[in-house]
């Protein structure tokens, strides 16, 4: 049952129709920005055929967006507290729409990587503003929890629906169309925000420390670059060096925040056990989910041979499951201890990951769809309850910073999962020697087969049908094996985080009427 305290229940003004309509406006960038994390998943084969990126470039195209968002979120949260959250939201919408056009017409892989990175910077201006404005508009804890549940449904639904929307667009248009959907949405947001959303500026918000911004971005990008280098085998020394430099930059960043009067990151938030533990849980869960989801979308096209639209439609059930449980989570959390809700959610997700770890090359589609549904049934409550716990722990004047930390963990988890589990999957794929069953291949073909299953499919198209069939069988078996390795890792991580939530998220916990603070 829900924990009670002796603290008096403060009176908060109830939100009216204007606030709820404003929440619908804030749902637009939330849905779109999270969709942009995964919208390229089903477009990768088309993009690869057109731009011919290397395996490493393909991973950068996929995850540089999320990493640039994560690197800039804390800075943008502080900037929104200082300059005005609605003003930053509006400016970010205009920039995001313009950069989406640039990405859609990128002439090469390098240009697309740069465009995706700049989109991440623009997206970072939007994400903390949406969650901080929800905290401003819904002061009643019960209403705030419901609003954040809806926000979480949009965030999680966008991640799950990204491949669905991308698949539908790719049925009739070229890969760049997946970026152009942002243009009308951001135009609507730029017009509606001044009319429906309140402005909020914290009088005590400090300046944005540029050195801290550079350090935070440098730390994350260096670590990810190093992980990619290590996964390629021949880049081990450079990869280890990059990871070390990234870790050093992160340590300097943390020490700097403890000394600055106007810190970019409010490190005092991490002294709250519920805040720090919940952040770790969200980060870890979203990391393994994003990495597994990337392999699931590739499985649908490269193993099952489905078109982008058909693959997207098979992903609809998991998206619906996540939206429903995200929306229902606040009511569940009012009846059960928060740590039990989080632990149960993680256990459900772990069961889904275990189902995915049993996939094969011939009869995996029903098991894949069922496993993803189970995974996302567990994700919804975790994201909604965890976010409310994080945001509710900060005072109103630091809502932008707390929201930025929350979303930094979310976005960094998503991007980190793609990078790390993508690299782990690459190692497992190459270790399976996908070209072993097709002797006599030219060195260039063998190299392409070992790069990724996508490049293997492209190489097979140039070979005689019997040879191509043997080559594709080996590549697909190697890919499925790498997928099961990734899913198995995800299951272990989810179970470990469930145990952590039970052990560390003990009372006192935030409750209804307590303002969401431990």
Beta-strand portion reads under 5%
Number of strands: 0
Sheet of most strands: none
**CA radius of gyration:** 22 Å
Given the C-alpha coordinates, what overall shape results? Answer: globular
Counting H and I runs of at least 4 residues, what is the number of helices?
19
Coarse structural class: mainly alpha
First-to-last CA distance: 17 Å
What would the average pLDDT be, to the nearest integer? 77
| Secondary-structure element series | HHHHHHHHHHHHHHHHHHH
- Spans of 5+ residues with little confidence (pLDDT < 50)? 1-9, 509-518
Helicity, as a percent range: over 70%
Please characterize this protein's 3D structure.
By secondary structure, the protein is mostly helical. It is built from 19 helices and no strands. It is globular. 58% of the residues are buried.
């Amino acid at each position: 049952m829900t924990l009670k305290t002796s603290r008096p229940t403060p009176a908060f003004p109830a939100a009216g129709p204007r606030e709820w309509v404003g929440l619908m406006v804030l749902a637009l960038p939330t849905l779109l920005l999270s969709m942009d994390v995964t919208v390229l998943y089903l477009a990768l084969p088309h993009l690869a055929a057109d731009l011919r990126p290397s395996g490493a470039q393909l991973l950068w195209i996929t995850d540089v967006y999320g990493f640039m968002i994560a690197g800039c979120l804390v800075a943008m949260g502080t900037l929104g507290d200082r300059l005005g959250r609605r003003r930053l939201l509006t400016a970010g919408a205009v920039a995001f729409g313009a950069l989406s056009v640039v990405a859609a017409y990128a002439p090469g892989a390098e240009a697309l990587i740069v465009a995706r990175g700049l989109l991440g910077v623009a997206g970072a201006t939007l994400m903390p503003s949406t969650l901080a404005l929800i905290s401003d508009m819904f002061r009643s804890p019960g209403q705030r929890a419901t609003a954040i549940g809806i926000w979480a449904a949009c965030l999680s639904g966008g991640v799950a629906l990204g491949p669905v929307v991308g698949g539908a667009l790719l049925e009739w248009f070229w890969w760049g169309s997946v970026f152009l959907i942002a243009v009308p949405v951001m135009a609507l947001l730029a017009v509606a925000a001044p009319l429906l959303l309140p402005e909020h500026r914290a009088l005590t918000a400090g300046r944005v420390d540029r050195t801290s911004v550079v350090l935070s971005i440098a730390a994350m990008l260096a670590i990810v670059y190093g992980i990619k280098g290590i996964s390629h085998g021949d880049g081990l020394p450079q990869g280890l060096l990059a990871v070390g430099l990234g870790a050093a930059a992160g340590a300097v960043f943390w020490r700097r925040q403890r000394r600055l009067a106007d810190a970019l990151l409010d490190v005092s938030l991490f002294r709250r056990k519920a805040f720090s533990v919940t952040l770790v849980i969200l980060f870890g869960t979203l990391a393994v989910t994003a990495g597994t989801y990337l392999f699931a979308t590739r499985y649908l096209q490269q193993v099952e041979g489905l078109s982008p639209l058909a693959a997207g439609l098979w992903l609809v059930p998991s998206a619906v499951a996540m939206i429903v449980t995200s929306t229902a989570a606040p009511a569940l959390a009012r009846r059960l201890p928060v740590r039990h809700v989080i632990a149960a959610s993680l256990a459900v997700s772990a069961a889904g990951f275990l189902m995915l770890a049993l996939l094969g090359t011939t009869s995996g589609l029903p098991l894949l769809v069922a496993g993803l549904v189970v995974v996302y049934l567990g994700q919804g409550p975790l994201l909604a309850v965890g976010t409310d716990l994080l945001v509710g722990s900060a005072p109103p004047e630091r809502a932008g910073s707390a929201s930025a930390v929350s979303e930094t963990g979310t976005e960094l988890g998503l991007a980190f999962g793609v990078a790390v589990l993508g690299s782990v999957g690459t190692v497992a794929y190459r270790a399976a020697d996908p070209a072993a069953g097709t002797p006599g291949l030219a060195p260039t073909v063998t190299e392409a087969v070992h790069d990724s299953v996508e490049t293997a499919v492209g190489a097979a198209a140039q070979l005689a049908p019997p040879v191509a069939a043997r080559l594709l069988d080996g590549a697909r078996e190697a890919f499925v094996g790498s997928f099961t390795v990734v899913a198995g890792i995800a299951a272990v991580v989810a179970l470990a985080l469930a145990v952590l939530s039970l052990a560390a998220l003990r009372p006192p916990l935030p409750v209804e009427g307590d303002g969401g603070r431990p």
